[in-house]
């Protein structure tokens, strides 16, 4: 479909309806959304629009795999809608190219009662560019029974104690099993360790890599030790045939993952197994560790003719009824803290604790490419091609190449 033509047709149609006095409201809003949220939005909006005060919203669903590219090509072709759901890691890029407008002062109440680390993810150049809609982060899913047999109520919060517990749990699990699953093609696990060690990964200006700094070296060495000591299998996610059956049989006893895994555990594991697993925050060098604040936010695009109506929709989706309806329809964890109190699932407590200890990732448009390169180098290190220091230096080198344009822009005052 030609989105430029489609958008012009849409806007022309709205204008015609308004000028002829049609009963349909002229403040119609086009919105792009992804995944489960896109599927749930029509029903969610119907639930919120009982008094017909909301503008009508046309939701175009996009697959997550192509949504980022769709947003960029939509901006280049002048074919963006009024508003969209976006991944939090895309906000820096969309702000840098001028695609989105900052949250207006009049809408600042939307940011109240939210997790500060998630808000910080949306803050670039002193402005907040998006409103968190739902949140997630990563915690440990663990085998209660195997930790109990090893002498622990739960995985300890300090790295040294945590590793000692993993060795004991591995012995309890038996020959051929491991303690923790950290697939070597997933960068999130190393990122979690780095954030827990308070590593910046990039310098303050976001112009050079900081992987050779002491805090990241500490995290990288700890990450490597988990594989060197046989606590984690040297395997990619594609080599684990069925995560749930492997967790149930004790192939690993700790699985760092996000809130979607709660539903997977309940659906994929038998009823008699449900009391044998739990969740706790990530460990850190000196206590509870950190994690990246994830989720999705809502943005309004710069120059949208109906931005006022779009902000009305954002307000509805962030209100208490909207947050409750989102959780009911999708299982997503709402961005507003007050909406968590109604959830009786004890497994979400670890996520609330972890979000209070989360730290925002570097906010540069190149970040996703940088972490992909970081994990390529980390896997090569695990396979013996680099020492820890050599791997960190290689990560810096690759990051610096990717940040070359940003340095040029910063030097000329053109970067956010």
Description:
By secondary structure, this protein is α+β, with helices and mostly antiparallel strands. The chain has 17 helices and 13 strands. The strands form 4 sheets. A 6-stranded mixed sheet has the order 2-1-3-12-6-13. It has a 3-stranded antiparallel sheet with strand order 10-7-11. It has a two-stranded antiparallel ribbon with strand order 4-5. The protein has helices at residues 3-19, 35-48, 64-76, 91-96, 116-121, 144-149, 159-173, 188-196, 214-228, 243-249, 260-268, 307-318, 320-330, 349-356, 367-382, 388-402, 404-411, and strands spanning 29-34, 57-62, 83-87, 123-124, 127-128, 131-136, 139-143, 201-202, 209-210, 254-257, 277-280, 294-300, 333-334.
Number of strands: 13
Low-confidence parts lasting 5 or more residues at pLDDT below 50? 1-27
Rg, nearest Å = 23 Å
User: How large is the share of residues in beta strands?
Assistant: 5-15%
What's the helix count? 17
Q: Return the structural class.
A: alpha+beta
How helix-rich are the residues, as a percent range?
40-55%
Quaternary structure type: single chain
Largest sheet: 6 strands, mixed
Task: Give the strand line-up of the largest sheet.
Answer: 2-1-3-12-6-13
Distance between the termini: 34 Å
| Average pLDDT level | 91
The SSE string, one letter per element, is HEHEHEHHEEEEHHHEEHHEHEEHHEHHHH
- The rough form would be described as globular
């Amino acid at each position: 479909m030609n989105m430029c033509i489609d958008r012009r047709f849409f806007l022309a149609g709205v204008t015609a309806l308004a000028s002829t006095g049609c009963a349909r409201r002229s403040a119609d809003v086009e919105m792009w959304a992804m995944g489960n949220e896109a599927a749930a939005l029509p029903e969610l909006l119907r639930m919120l629009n009982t008094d017909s005060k909301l503008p009508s919203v046309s939701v175009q669903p996009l697959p997550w795999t192509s949504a980022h590219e769709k947003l960029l090509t939509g901006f280049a072709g002048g074919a963006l809608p009024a508003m969209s759901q976006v991944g939090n890691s895309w906000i820096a890029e969309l702000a840098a190219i001028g695609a989105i407008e900052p949250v207006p002062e009049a809408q600042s109440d939307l940011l109240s009662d939210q997790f500060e680390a998630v808000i910080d993810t949306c803050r670039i150049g002193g402005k907040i560019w998006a409103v968190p809609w739902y949140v997630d982060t990563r915690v440990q899913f663990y085998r209660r029974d195997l930790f109990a047999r090893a002498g622990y109520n739960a995985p300890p919060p300090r790295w040294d104690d945590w590793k000692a517990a993993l060795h004991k749990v591995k012995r309890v699990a038996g020959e051929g099993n491991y303690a923790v699953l950290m697939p070597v093609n997933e960068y999130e696990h190393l990122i979690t360790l780095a954030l827990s060690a308070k590593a910046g990964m990039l310098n303050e200006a976001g112009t050079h890599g900081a992987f050779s700094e002491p805090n990241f070296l500490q995290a990288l060495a700890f990450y490597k030790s988990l594989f060197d000591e046989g606590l984690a299998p040297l395997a990619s996610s594609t080599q684990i045939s069925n995560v749930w059956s492997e967790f149930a049989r004790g192939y690993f006893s700790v699985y760092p993952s996000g809130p979607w895994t709660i539903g997977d555990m309940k659906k994929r594991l038998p009823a008699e197994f449900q009391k044998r697993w739990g969740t706790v925050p990530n460990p850190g060098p000196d206590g509870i560790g950190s994690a990246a604040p994830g989720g999705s936010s809502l943005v309004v695009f710069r120059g949208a003719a109906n931005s006022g109506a779009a902000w009305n929709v954002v307000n509805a989706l962030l209100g208490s009824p909207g947050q409750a309806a989102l959780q009911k329809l999708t299982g997503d964890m709402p961005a507003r803290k007050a909406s968590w109190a109604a959830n009786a699932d004890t497994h979400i407590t670890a996520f609330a604790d972890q979000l209070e200890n989360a730290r925002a990732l570097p906010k540069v448009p190149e970040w996703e490419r940088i972490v992909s390169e970081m994990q390529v180098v980390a896997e090569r290190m695990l396979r013996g091609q680099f020492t820890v220091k050599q791997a960190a230096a290689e990560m810096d080198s690759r990051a610096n190449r990717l940040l070359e344009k940003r340095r040029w822009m910063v030097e000329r005052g053109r970067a956010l």
